């Protein structure tokens, strides 16, 4: 009796990838199907609100207040679905040799007005001897923006945000350190879990999406935090032995 050969590691990995891809496709399709009737509900609520605004009776004002609640919840569902579709999609990177410091400078130029509005001082310390890394620039900018917005939300009364880069033996390290409210041990342990959020109205998908993008680049992201003292996110990216071209 001939024994059935065991599947190779590559075959097992490919099977898992195929299964994940199918689940992501189905989940994305379901989210799109939900968005269509949700858009119809939102539109009709807006039209109904316009009709009621012409009336000034207490009954109409009460009805209008209830419609406004439905409109807010519809928008919240819309935001959750958009975040979920971004989180669930299979990431096909288009990496190219990239100056990480330049990417950071570009995203900071975009973020600085938001930081100024929140009384946040941004301090970049970018090492000039940084080697190039392979990045899908658009996706990585999205991941970095998630971290910057997370830091902004952690410092509602203002503070300081340090962004630093340095080269190491295994690659390039990017750190973001804020002086915000920090996290307790339980929150820190679950911060990258999908749908875990301590923010009212938050989808809990921003940081998990960031982790997915970093890991798709064969990198790692970690966090250290202390309540009342701030948070540090660390991203480690590999440096290719030989850049294409």
Estimate the helix proportion, in percent. 40-55%
Strands, count: 7
Q: What is the CATH class designation of the largest domain?
A: Alpha Beta
Largest sheet: 5 strands, mixed
Structural class: alpha+beta
What CATH calls the topology of the largest domain is: Heat Shock Protein 90
The rounded distance between the terminal residues' Cα atoms is 53 Å
Radius of gyration: 23 Å
Account of the 3D structure:
The protein has 245 residues and is an alpha+beta fold. The protein folds into two domains: 9-88, Signal transduction histidine kinase, dimerisation/phosphotransfer (DHp) domain (Helix Hairpins, Orthogonal Bundle), CATH 1.10.287.130; 96-238, Heat Shock Protein 90, CATH 3.30.565. It contains six helices and seven strands; from the N terminus they run H-H-E-H-E-E-H-E-E-H-H-E-E. The termini are far apart.
Concise structural overview:
With 245 residues, the protein is α+β, with helices and mostly antiparallel strands. 53% of the residues lie in helices and 19% in strands. A five-stranded mixed beta sheet has the order 2-4-5-7-6, covered by helices on one side. A two-stranded antiparallel sheet has the order 1-3.
């Amino acid at each position: 009796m001939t024994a059935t050969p065991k599947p190779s590691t590559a075959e097992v990995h490919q099977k898992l990838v195929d299964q994940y891809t199918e689940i992501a496709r189905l989940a994305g399709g379901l989210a799109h199907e939900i968005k269509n009737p949700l858009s119809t509900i939102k539109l009709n609520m807006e039209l109904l609100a316009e009709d009621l605004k012409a009336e000034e009776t207490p009954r109409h004002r009460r009805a209008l207040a209830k419609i406004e609640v439905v409109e807010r919840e519809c928008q919240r569902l819309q935001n959750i679905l958009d975040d979920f579709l971004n989180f669930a999609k299979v990431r096909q990177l288009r990496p190219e040799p990239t100056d990480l410091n330049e990417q950071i400078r570009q995203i900071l130029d975009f973020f600085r007005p938001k930081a100024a509005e929140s009384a946040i001082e941004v301090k970049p310390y970018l090492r000039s001897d940084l080697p190039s890394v392979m990045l899908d620039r658009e996706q990585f900018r999205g991941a970095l923006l998630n971290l910057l917005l997370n830091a902004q939300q952690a410092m509602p009364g203002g503070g300081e945000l340090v962004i630093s880069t340095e080269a190491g033996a295994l690659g390039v390290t990017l750190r973001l350190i804020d002086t915000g409210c920090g996290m307790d041990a339980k929150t820190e342990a679950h911060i990258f879990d999908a749908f875990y959020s301590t923010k009212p109205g938050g989808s809990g998908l921003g940081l998990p999406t960031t982790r997915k993008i970093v890991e798709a680049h064969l990198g790692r992201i970690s966090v250290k935090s202390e309540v009342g003292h701030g948070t540090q996110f660390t991203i480690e990216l590999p440096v290719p032995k030989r850049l294409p071209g």
